[in-house]
Recover the amino acids of this structure.
């Protein structure tokens, strides 16, 4: 085999052009260029395409952008459902939210049908022709531009309609196919449904007037106690119970409250005679004149 004068071949761990040895700096630069090219190619392949709403980019509404952003948590998940209706229909449907099912095919297929017998794949809808809108507790995601029908629906392109219903506490579940409408002349579609918390409206926490007043009252009490305690201790120099703000007032108030409770809750009249009385002098009688003189010594 004859080599041209401009050919590159390795000689002793370095590259040589036409028999002339390349310098180490040239060798290093060539390797760096190869690595950069490989890194760029890998980055392009790893970057997944996302949903593109039908129409020009300038025509996308703020609502559509907000809904697509709301669906982002589901983009890393894959969903599959199998339909087995005998020998005529035996398919697996693969679905991803705003991502390609098979990113290596570069067909924008967001929902793909696979025949389990023949292995043939059919794109039901593509993410580059997306429509999205919502209601109070649901989001409707539509992929248009699928592969064309054969004998059905006047040969128009397939379309996938995915109904995402609200279910709190669940990221995504219950992906299933409801029906395929293909007995019309046009506007045929595949209808799917699934549950997810991303379709749920934001929970509004409304506080009642009583709750607001209670929170305000408790906050004021806390400020009063903490602030008064710090003032009494650091400024006045009080110790022990005297650190409680207005301790004498609260002590008197406690006594007054106790007296009030005793007055209100007393079960007997205030002027009722006592059940026990001491023995008075009038009840002892006169002292006997008789004394025990005989006990004295003579």
């Amino acid at each position: 085999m004859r080599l041209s004068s401009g050919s590159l071949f390795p000689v002793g761990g370095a590259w040589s052009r036409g028999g002339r040895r390349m310098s180490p700096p040239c060798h290093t630069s060539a390797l760096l260029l190869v690595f950069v090219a490989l890194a760029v190619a890998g980055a392009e392949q790893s970057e997944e395409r996302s949903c593109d709403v039908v129409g020009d980019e300038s025509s996308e509404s703020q609502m559509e952008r907000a809904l697509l952003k709301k669906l982002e948590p589901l983009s890393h998940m894959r969903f599959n459902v199998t339909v087995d209706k005998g020998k005529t229909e035996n398919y697996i449907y693969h679905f991803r939210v705003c991502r390609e099912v098979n990113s290596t095919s570069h067909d924008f297929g967001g929902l793909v049908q696979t025949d389990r017998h023949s292995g043939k794949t059919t794109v039901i809808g593509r993410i580059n022709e997306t429509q999205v809108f919502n209601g109070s507790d649901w989001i409707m995601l539509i992929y248009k531009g699928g592969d064309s029908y054969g004998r059905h629906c006047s040969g128009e392109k397939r379309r996938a309609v995915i109904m995402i219903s609200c279910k709190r506490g669940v990221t995504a579940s219950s992906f299933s196919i409801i029906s395929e409408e293909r007995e019309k002349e046009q506007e045929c579609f595949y209808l799917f449904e699934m549950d997810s918390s991303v379709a749920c409206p934001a929970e509004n926490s409304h506080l009642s007037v009583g709750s607001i007043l209670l929170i305000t009252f408790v906050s004021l009490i806390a400020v009063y106690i903490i602030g008064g305690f710090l003032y009494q201790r650091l400024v006045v120099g009080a110790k022990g119970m005297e650190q409680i703000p207005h301790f004498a007032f609260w002590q008197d108030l406690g006594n007054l409250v106790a007296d009030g409770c005793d007055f209100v809750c007393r079960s007997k009249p205030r002027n009722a005679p006592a059940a026990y009385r001491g023995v008075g002098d009038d009840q002892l009688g006169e002292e006997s004149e008789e004394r025990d003189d005989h006990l004295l010594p003579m």
Observations:
- The mean pLDDT is 80.
- Helices lie at 24-46, 62-70, 209-236, 247-264.
- The first strand starts at residue 8 and ends at 11.
